[in-house]
Amino acid sequence: SICPTHLLHRCRGSDGIDSSWSPRRPSNENQAPGWPFPLPPAAAGYPFPPAPYGGSYQPSQGSDDDWDDDWDDSSTVADEPGALGSSYPDYEAAGGGASATVSRNLNRFSTFVKSGGEAFVLGEASGFVKDGDKLCVVLGPRGPEWQENPYPFQCSIEDPTKQTKFKGMKSYIAYKLVPSHTGQQVHRRYKHFDWLYGRLAEKFPVISVPHLPEKQATGRFEEDFISKRRKGLAWWMDHMCSHPVLAQCDAFQHFLTCPSTDEKAWKQGKRKAEKDEMVGANFFLTISVPTGPGASLDLQEVESQVDGFKAFTKKMDESALQLNHTANEFARKQVTGFKKEYQKVGHSFKCLSQAFELDQQAFSAGLNQAIAFTAEAYDAIGDLFADQPRQDLDPVMDLLALYQGHLANFPDIIHVQKGALTKVKESKRHVEEGKMELQKAEGIQERCNIISFATLAEINHFHKIRVRDFKSQMQHFLQQQILFFQKVTQKLEEALHKYDSV
After folding, report:
1. Residue 25, annotated ligand binder?
2. Pro residues bias: where (predicted)?
């Protein structure tokens, strides 16, 4: 039987995972072959703002009674400081919305201290963790992995609707969420996503919580903005549901399952999440790692792997930024330049056919009509070029934006792990100098091991979903390109056949 929604964080032991597991996803007749989740509808892209590097996320502060407060009700104009001024439908700014490349954290251990990593490694964290709340890292075929969610699910985000309150004086947008494991729809506003993001970013120091699309964005029409945001939230939701730890987190489950109309239940769950003690240093106490022979990590090897990943994220971020810029520029040319040039050719053919009509010879009427048809074909091809980016380039830029949000998270995650390794090296030196007991140093190494297991599991998960997402998106991009050129070819063939009877 399907597990009830409250059954969370169940460990299946540390002897490995079911390698045949794959996410159960609904079929979608419109999806590309191999696409692991329904494609977001083709619409304009949206930028994700990166979190400030080396800084912690500051969640929106709200009281327990803020279910109906207005955090972002005027969500149609860019009137907020720091709003990104990119409007993808017009391709006004090349590379708009892309993050800067991954940067160094200036204060090397600020994240380590702030996340509670230092307190944990030094043995200063204490708390009781129930077995059911343990987050298990297991040894998979590619090294440490988060234990898979035994009851995978997904959640659609549909029908953004404008709702009002205070007898119509205030309006806001609510999104319909339908989690597959309950089938019960709930409505959430952006402020509820924002609250959840803040809780999770604070709770999980070594997990990359995907960034939300920004609070405000430029857009000529309200519909444009809502469409961008819905698509951004759909990507966000997919990455949340795909993460074995985030998907099973109490706060996320409360967000997905609490009835929209039950304010009391919402506030209770909200308070519970805000009073969660397993954050910061205590979060690391919840991590269960493999034990026994062959389960210990070589710290030098861990350091090498993490350094390799750091170099990878820097390169990926630079190339994502470059691709985003190139795609944006190419889209802009298609929407303006290519359309204009093809329609110029079409107009010239039209002028030729109009000139030919002046001959008033009966036998040349077919030729005149065929040339006029050719003019229309080129005009239509111009429109095809202008419409095409939203079918293929925009989805690629959407994916890049989401991943640039992830890449912005990793410097802090890496600093937590690096801080732990440094404490191990210091403790070894202190033992040699007679300043520390061996037992204490071993405890530090053991706790560093836990942080290393969790970091490697998160890196592994990132690569897994990256391969899944980029495979699917590249397939979608190429399929859309093929369809586009088939349409162009069809227009040209239709024009060619008009000359057969001349």
Report:
1. no
2. 35-52
Instruction: Indicate whether this model's pTM tops 0.90.
Output: no
User: Which residues are within 8 A (CB) of 155 and not within 5 positions of it... i.e. 6 or more apart?
Assistant: 177, 178, 179, 180, 237, 240, 241, 256
Round to whole Å and give the CA distance between 133 and 382. Answer: 58
390 is in an annotated binding site: no
* The pairing of beta strand 186-188 with beta strand 135-140: unpaired
Distance of CA 131 to the CA centre of its chain: 31
396, 90 Cβ separation under 8 angstroms: no
CA distance 240 to 233: 10
Cα(45)–Cα(125) distance, rounded to whole angstroms? 43
Q: β-strands 143-146, 155-165: how paired?
A: unpaired
Task: Please count the CA atoms within 13 angstroms of the CA of 336 that sit on its side-chain side.
Answer: 9
CA torsion sign for 460, 462, 466, 468 is positive
In angstroms, the CA 365 to CA 359 distance is 9
Q: Is 191 annotated as a binding residue?
A: yes
Query: What does the pLDDT read at residue 274?
Result: 93
Q: What's phi and psi for 271, nearest 5 deg?
A: -60, -45
Whole-angstrom Cα Rg for the chain:
27
How far apart, in whole angstroms, are the C-alpha atoms of residue 189 and residue 187? Answer: 7
CA dihedral 282, 284, 290, 296 (to 10 degrees): -120
Coil/strand/helix, residue 277: coil
What are the φ and ψ backbone dihedral angles of 143, each rounded to 5 degrees? 100, -160
Question: What's the confidence (pLDDT) of residue 2?
Answer: 44
Q: Is 135 left (phi over 0), alpha (psi -120 to 50) or beta?
A: beta
Question: Could you tell me whether strands 287-288 and 135-140 are parallel, antiparallel, or unpaired per DSSP bridges?
Answer: parallel
User: Is residue 398, in this structure, part of any structural domain at all?
Assistant: yes
Cα–Cα distances (Å) from 237 to 101, 135, 243, 388, in that order, read: 24, 21, 10, 26
Stretches where the chain sits below pLDDT 70 are 1-110, 166-168, 215-221
* Alpha-carbon dihedral 166, 169, 170, 173, rounded to 10 degrees: 100
Give residue-wise pLDDT tens across range 160-204: 888 777 666 777 888 999 999 998 999 999 899 999 999 999 999
Q: Please report the pLDDT score of residue 64 as a whole number.
A: 38
- The verdict on residue 136 lying in a domain is yes
Any domain includes 472? yes
For the chain, give the longest Cα–Cα distance: 109
Tally of domains within the chain: 1
Full residue range of the structural domain in which residue 443 is found: 66-329+391-486
| 81 in a structural domain | yes
pLDDT in tens, 358-400: 987 888 889 999 999 999 999 999 999 999 999 999 999 999 9
Q: What is the spatial distance between Cα 209 and Cα 405, in angstroms, rounded to a whole number?
A: 9
Q: What's the CATH number where 400 sits?
A: 3.30.1520.10
